[in-house]
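Job type: complex structure
Entries:
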Amino acid sequence: EAGVAQSPRYKIIEKRQSVAFWCNPISGHATLYWYQQILGQGPKLLIQFQNNGVVDDSQLPKDRFSAERLKGVDSTLKIQPAKLEDSAVYLCASSLDQRDSYNEQFFGPGTRLTVL
Amino acid sequence: KNQVEQSPQSLIILEGKNCTLQCNYTVSPFSNLRWYKQDTGRGPVSLTIMTFSENTKSNGRYTATLDADTKQSSLHITASQLSDSASYICVVRGYGQNFVFGPGTRLSVLP
């Protein structure tokens, strides 16, 4: 079974530039998550999709971050414009169905973003 | 407020030694607790899941315990190997709630 795919793996940009990350979840997984992980901290949920609908985006800085999952499969996360404090690893995860509390989340390798 | 705390923040041990990592949580109502291992440059991978009725669960050299009364969990690593060097993250889920992540414990195993 293929895992969660993410690209790019690394990205370096200057502040005020734009950047986009892509995630392809495990086939058949209805729930997709985007997390931000700052060095030395645990992941922080940015947004959660159930199929192509948003379940939770309460911690997404909506003035600069946006995400979509148009066909309920792949997802993109965009930052525009980037700030220095956005430097982090952006993790994508998927699970069969978030309504089942026992479903395991499977994580992708992450995209390491450095904002200069 | 639902929170997960972990200790120690970091730990250095010699290869072959045992160690125990701690997790305290305030998530309620409790559904389950997972321990994840995150190697440098990779996403977290689940080691074990603990539910309310489970006290102990093993996965190879990893043994997790849960005390639902005191809201504490531990992860014990036996006969450590260099490949155990990683961050270990405790994640708790309440019923009908999202996952709450701890900050992780950074383990370094030295030869």
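Summary: The mean pLDDT of chain A is 94. Chain A touches chain B at residues 4, 40-45, 48, 56, 91, 93, 98, 101-102, 104-105, 107-110, 112 (CB under 8 Å).
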